[in-house]
Amino acid sequence: MKKLFLIILMFLISIEHGFSQKISNEKIVEQIISYKNSIRGPYKDIRWFCTDGSLRQPKDPCPENIGPGLQHARYKDEVVSLGKTNHIFLGQILAFTQTEEFWDAENNHSRLKQYQLDKYLRSVDDGWINRKGQFYRGSVQSEDEEAWGINFYKWLLSNDDNLEKNYFLIRQSLKDIPHNGDDNRSQLIRSQSKVISDTFPSFMDLRVKIHSQPEFTDIEKVKSFKAKNTSKLNKDLSLKLDELIENMNKFYKPIDISSLLSKKSLVSKTEIGQKIKTYISNQSKNTSVSELITGTSEMLMEIRTSLLKEKDPLVRLELLDISIKLEEIIFKNAPRWEPEDVQEILSKICYLGMAAAGAGYIELDEWDNINLKTPFKENTSMALGELTSILENARSLVEWSSSMVKANYQDVVNIYTAFEPKAYGFIDDRIRGSIALYLGMAVGDLGDFIAKESALTNKVLDIPNQSSFRGLNPGYAFGELVVVAGSPDAVEVSSDKIYIFQRPPSDLKPVAGIATVSEGNMVSHVQLLARNLGIPNAALSDENLQKLIVYSGQKVFYAVSNKGNVILKLESSMTEVEKALFIKTERKSDKIEVPIVNVRLDVNEVLNLRSVDANDSGKLCGPKAANLGQLKRMFPEKVVEGLVIPFGIFRDHMDQEMPNQNKSYWKFLNDMFDKAENMRNQNISETDVEKFQLDQLEILREAIKKMPLKPEFISQLETDFKNILGKDLGDIPVFLRSDTNMEDLKDFTGAGLNLTLFNVVEKDKIIDGIKSVWASPYTERSFKWRQKYLLNPENVFPSILVIPSVDVDYSGVLITKGISNGVDEDLTIAFSRGAGGAVDGQAAETYLIYNKGGTRFLAPSREMYYNRLPQEGGTEKLISSFEKPILNSGNINEIRALARSIRETLPKETHSDYQGAYDVELGFQNNKLWLFQIRPFVENKKALSSDYLQSITPLIDNNKQILLSEKL
Predict the structure, then answer these.
(1) Which family does the record claim for this protein (predicted)?
(2) What are the boundaries of each domain within the chain?
(3) Using one digit for the tens of pLDDT, what is the confidence trace for 523-570?
(4) Per residue in 905-938, is it b (16+ CB within 10 Å) or e — as a string?
């Protein structure tokens, strides 16, 4: 009886805490359809909610003796359930919501973001879940929602930490959460134009104009469109066009600058209030659009830097509302500022960049670290190289502004897109409604001018704004163009196709070429593979990607030169020289043969990391363990202790009989390769051969994962684990790093192709992990890369590096070369918070460190989530913010000293004649530097020296002087 009681109790607790099973996306779709067709939408009924907690019928208000109460709808039961099971909140009524629950800090402010996304969906989909419920009177009371909004911001803005860490999100939320009677008319205009074009396709050109280059003259264009198409418009469309015109007239109505400070203003009595009064006085009668934008941008920045000095939350709220109005002034007037010369376009870019920082699209530290603030004097000149550097920084500002929007909202958009595809347009809509839109246009104008002066011109089909393209890795390719506008993770890539992605996939299989909107970072595994293998790789803008969609599915030629200019043309436009680049050669040409003559398979005992060094790479173990052992000798205090499971132990286990095969694992593997070669000799297609191999490898891989480990090996592993790491197997968390003989070869890096297991603790999981790591070279992705570039991919031998976990505060990659500028003496570093982010392709904080002193900030981190490594094992996802840089000056100086030491001592210690750069993985814990890996930085010399790539690479005179008075 007692046992039954406990079962019932646990069941009730699970219901109370929402531990019931998640509702599928398919089921959510069904619910949304039903809400769209319901006159009450997601709501069940309307009630009075009285102060004492009681509920009363709609026509029975709360009596005066218990307070006035609030009247609004109750959610349908399944809506409430969806919040508990999936943390998805539909049709949120603010007056029905606790402030802390709505802020939802534990879930990265998901509820607030969902509220914003819900409002967007209602605007672009005729009310969305409230399609018929829009007319359900009393479900939401606007005055109650607005009063709630004011109280919410009073609570939220009383905390300095909230404002400092979430400035962008809080400021964006003001555009959606009612608190002062205003609305987001700019977003409404874009939504209405989308709805019209979806129903009436001939409006599409105007919709694109309104979304891409909105300006006051669009009003007349919409009026003209309506007049020309009156006979084709039904009553509903005619009304929608009238509403659009009305809203455009209201939006483009000049803002009365003198009304920024109301008579009841609390701000007017503050120090920043006096500056706003001066701004109002200066700008109220100003007729110069350039001076208006300059002064408004400076005022935006003043407000942002003053917010934390003001402690009254209502003053902060008023300042943020003024900030929104100032951004609107810039957004409306930016198209009217038409620079005539270089100096003026530089000035426009500078002040729009300042405005972006003031509006929160970039952080203040990022603005301080980027060189756009040089005072440009009249009748002076600037070297082309310096001008190009400003262009690169300006492009970065555009990318960072867009990535700020994505970083804050992508997680919620991804969740909603799975059941409501229209949600994917939210981020694009947010970017197009921001200063970044006009900043990008100005940067494009400067890019076009510099391209003309340097002859560094992109030739990308017939799309506009081509200066947004920039090459990352040189190379050329021919194949079908595939444009992926959504998430890349579910896309099955092919090695003979060229892919355009929003962001690079985390586990990229071989492709012919790649370009991405979010490049991740230049030292991620994906970028290193592309660089190593001569795969052309470029970055582009969101707008560029959208324009390329119409070419998806067509055969194209794609090339990136050594200087980064990009060519993309249809097959029909290829020259004879370009066609000749793809004449088929023998199958084995240009492939690499892995030397195996020195592999020591007779050593089948666990090794101490201290006992191996660089000379053992490819003999006893892979380069990770060998090189880390070398680093342990050189920097004993910066490298953890560790164990190495050499090739021989793996090979010894592979001689065991494989279940259900009447042969050993090793024989099964080699028989597969022999049969594959016989199939080729019989002219069976390579596609069929590959399918056979992958099917066989799947059988082998699953068998290895279940392979029994020999008792003598487990016994030695336990003994050495205790002796070397100081604790019993299963008592401390460790990393298990795959380390094969087919990595870090002279011409093939193999970066990130095999398995690393993070922070494993339990003995059984470590044992299973060893087998999983042994099986990982036989995964489809790993095998395809080896098969494509290696002559003898069958001779792969995995060793395993076992090292204790270090719960680093931040970690990253050091390349002892300036990648962005090609200078061998400089350094490139990329860091993310927590463990492993930079090498996995996160948008990392990146610097170019000059050999002669100084640094150049290349990119900020834009990752909301990062990994920490708890003592109990596994990984824990924590939420980050962007207001402070990851690395401090002490970290950078220590990295500089480490690189110098590696360059000077590593060749001597290893008796190597290697002259190239190194790729080093490292991290900091409490400002202590830890080293985790070193490998050669492998570049594709063929791509860099290709005659064709040289022919399309212009010679640029970076010392050429450009007059700033020169006309654009």
Answers:
(1) Belongs to the PEP-utilizing enzyme family.
(2) 4-183, 257-451, 459-580, 602-805, 807-937
(3) 555 566 666 667 888 888 888 888 999 999 999 999 988 788 899 999
(4) ebeeebeeeeeebbbbbbbbeeeebbbbbbbbbb
